[in-house]
Amino acid sequence: xxxxxxxxxxxxxxxxxxxxxxxxxxxxxxxxxxxxxxxxxxxxxxxxxxxxxxxxxxxxxxxxxxxxxxxxxxxxxxxxxxxxxxxxxxxxxxxxxxxxxxxxxxxxxxxxxxxxxxxxxxxxxxxxxxxxxxxxxxxxxxxxxxxxxxxxxxxxxxxxxxxxxxxxxxxxxxxxxxxxxxxxxxxxxxxxxxxxxxxxxxxxxxxxxxxxxxxxxxxxxxxxxxxxxxxxxxxxxxxxxxxxxxxxxxxxxxxxxxxxxxxxxxxxxxxxxxxxxxxxxxxxxxxxxxxxxxxxxxxxxxxxxxxxxxxxxxxxxxxxxxxxxxxxxxxxxxxxxxxxxxxxxxxxxxxxxxxxxxxxxxxxxxxxxxxxxxxxxxxxxxxxxxxxxxxxxxxxxxxxxxxxxxxxxxxxxxxxxxxxxxxxxxxxxxxxxxxxxxxxxxxxxxxxxxxxxxxxxxxxxxxxxxxxxxxxxxxxxxxxxxxxxxxxxxxxxxxxxxxxxxxxxxxxxxxxxxxxxxxxxxxxxxxxxxxxxxxxxxxxxxxxxxxxxxxxxxxxxxxxxxxxxxxxxxxxxxxxxxxxxxxxxxxxxxxxxxxxxxxxxxxxxxxxxxxxxxxxxxxxxxxxxxxxxxxxxxxxxxxxxxxxxxxxxxxxxxxxxxxxxxxxxxxxxxxxxxxxxxxxxxxxxxxxxxxxxxxxxxxxxxxxxxxxxxxxxxxxxxxxxxxxxxxxxxxxxxxxxxxxxxxxxxxxxxxxxxxxxxxxxxxxxxxxxxxxxxxxxxxxxxxxxxxxxxxxxxxxxxxxxxxxxxxxxxxxxxxxxxxxxxxxxxxxxxxxxxxxxxxxxxxxxxxxxxxxxxxxxxxxxxxxxxxxxxxxxxxxxxxxxxxxxxxxxxxxxxxxxxxxxxxxxxxxxxxxxxxxxxxxxxxxxxxxxxxxxxxxxxxxxxxxxxxxxxxxxxxxxxxxxx
Length: 962
What we know:
Layout: H1 2-12, H2 15-20, E1 27-30, E2 33-36, E3 45-47, E4 52-54, E5 58-59, E6 65-71, E7 73-75, E8 78-86, E9 92-96, E10 106-111, E11 117-119, E12 122-124, E13 132-136, E14 141-143, E15 148-150, E16 155-158, E17 162-165, E18 174-177, E19 191-196, E20 203-206, E21 209-211, E22 218-223, E23 227-230, E24 237-240, E25 244-247, E26 250-252, E27 257-263, E28 267-270, E29 285-288, E30 292-294, E31 302-307, E32 310-313, E33 316-318, E34 329-335, E35 338-342, E36 349-350, E37 361-365, E38 368-372, E39 381-384, E40 396-399, E41 402-406, E42 413-416, E43 428-431, E44 434-438, E45 441-443, H3 447-452, E46 466-469, E47 472-476, E48 479-483, E49 492-495, E50 498-502, E51 506-511, E52 518-521, E53 524-527, E54 532-537, E55 545-554, E56 559-564, E57 573-583, E58 594-599, E59 617-627, E60 631-636, E61 645-656, E62 677-682, E63 698-702, E64 705-709, E65 713-718, E66 727-730, E67 734-738, E68 741-746, E69 754-757, E70 761-765, E71 768-770, E72 783-786, E73 789-793, E74 796-798, E75 809-812, E76 815-818, E77 823-825, ...
Parallel strand pairs: 6-9, 8-10, 9-12, 10-13, 11-14, 12-15, 13-16, 14-20, 16-22, 20-25, 21-26, 22-27, 25-29, 26-30, 27-31, 29-32, 30-33, 31-34, 32-35, 33-36, 34-37, 35-38, 36-39, 37-40, 38-41, 39-42, 40-43, 41-44, 42-45, 43-46, 44-47, 45-48, 46-49, 47-50, 48-51, 49-52, 50-53, 51-54, 52-55, 53-55, ...
Antiparallel strand pairs: 1-2, 2-5, 3-8, 4-6, 5-6, 7-8, 17-18, 17-19, 19-28, 23-24, 80-81, 82-84, 83-84
């Protein structure tokens, strides 16, 4: 008999438990095992009312000890239990019995003595079918390394002070207090809220794996206070941190919901979404040591986090889906303070789609969000909602005051919502005051597949959109990519006050079926250190790159480009800056800074599939500065047309070049050593089979001045069968070209025309203006120059041809000054020479010409009624001239700067200028050029040759001479 007792004692209790108390054991046989008739001196589970009954420990054949819990108070489908202590040692089972076999929806339990609950064994409710289990203990709840659950329904563990019970109709409201001294009203209503009367203790999961059946939910609602408890295995006092913590813990709810909330003050937490009351303070939540919250399943589950601060330290929240029933929001993190992610080898948050699965979305809302990892794995993603199946990837939405992310030096992914299959990529939206990303890529396409070197031919999904809205956006060595192979790339938007891209950062949208658009909206936008923005397409039209800012600066090889490699047209580049645009490349780069739009012949693409047009480039700003080899460039290598370049400056345009190294062929250019400037080109050769497209036109206009210097080039060129584009320059007051060139040239076709206008002066020093061609039958382009003064110093004006005809050169100016080293030539080697027409009353063709100062004489309106009739019956103007403004011959006409602004109703603000404005149709003669909403009319071009040196009028006719 004694030996039998010893064996039973060893089977029922571990040696450590025997050390805790003296046990009196009696035996009786049962089907469930050996029931211990006399209670232990200190039972781990005790009753404290509500007719709750706890059996004596039962030794089971497998060596575990079971505690049966029965009785309780039943109200409808709710069964209420009250415990004094509720602890489950290792190898023990707290077994809830349904001895009445009545249907039960919820088992609601409370712990009343103020002692924490330490659960190191198993909680089982298998007799209740799919009933839900609630355990409420304000003193704290701890799950040990071997804790487990065997529950048919969902489970809720909370350190709340009470559970509020309420039907939707409000007719069956109740309340279940943890303190038995408080009056509880027990009803059959479901739990609607968790109530806290103070700052309660927390909940800890330490090394245990707690799992539920498919589709059930797991909820932890704890406080911010720490927990000191007696280890139920050996009685050793142990302390854990406050809040809700998981240390090497795992919660599994496949296809269900995992919800965690931590509070730090009194108030109520809604049971559904766990959102706190408006005045509540929230507590900390901490996951560490490879902890896992996993609601992944065929249907896809969801995870909800509500707290003050949330730390994810080498741990994961996962809600992946492999069937077509994913949750709309898979992971929802809503914090009042900070979210910190420090994972080096594990993804932090995943809601991926596989097979037929529909990925859910990830929403992160916190005051400050920081993510850091040191991994150099270029396929690693901290936040992952990508699809590898037939359905779409999930969206990622981040809302915070600050978002800071720094990944490994090789640039892992902060976010991957892309596609590796036929499913579409998801949208990424970041809304914050400050966004700082370093080596932290964001992918909404197949970029992750590309960098990993995996095949991309089977990827047909569309790219998702990427939008970042912040006061300050700083991207360093970071890529924003919505690139897909066969599909259509998504849109990329950067909206903020100050936006900076450096360290070779990029924003790229690409797709054979079309690229998305790129929108930049900022006060100050800066790109440096070879950063890029690109929209690349092939078979469908590409999206535009649109920039709205006060200042735009690109330097050190930074580029913005649109491109097509097939029949689809490349997108346009549209820049609107209210203060200035600066393109510079002081540190020489093989890829010069600037704006590029290309139509390219791509290797391996059939010739019949080529022919898309290059996009146009439009810049509107008060001041444009292009320096150090930077470029504005549109190019076509196919039968498609080149794009136009249109630049309008309300103040000045400055183009200063610099010799740069050869541009590589893969940068889609001629590949020759050349200077910076403005280019439109059509490139022939093997890349253009059949007729090549025509080059685009260049139109520059400035209100004050345009200068071209230091080897800078304004060029519309053709090396194939397409014609070169035209160049139009409206320089405002003056055009100054020194050691620069303005050229249209063609090797196999006709050159474009050049039209130059300025109010005061056009000066070429050590420079060239040329519309020559080298083609067999191509004709030289025409050159027209119309300022007040033309000065040539060691300069050339050329409209030459070989087999074709030379172009015509027309210079209309009151003063034309040319030194002996300068040349004006419109000859053809074998064809007909072009004509040279210089209308100028003053010409100095010898000697060295120095730069002249041009200052219009003061105009005065003299009120003579008979002269008013000559000017539309409104006003006449006369020039009061000194010795520097005499007629060219006695009785001749003065070269007066007549202003007709007032005559046509546009005010007198330009009364001292020599232009007249007209509101005639845009289809006027070639002497009319665009000047905003009005048209600039050249009075000099209205006169026939010789007009400026003839005598007209007679005092006997009108009495008015001008």
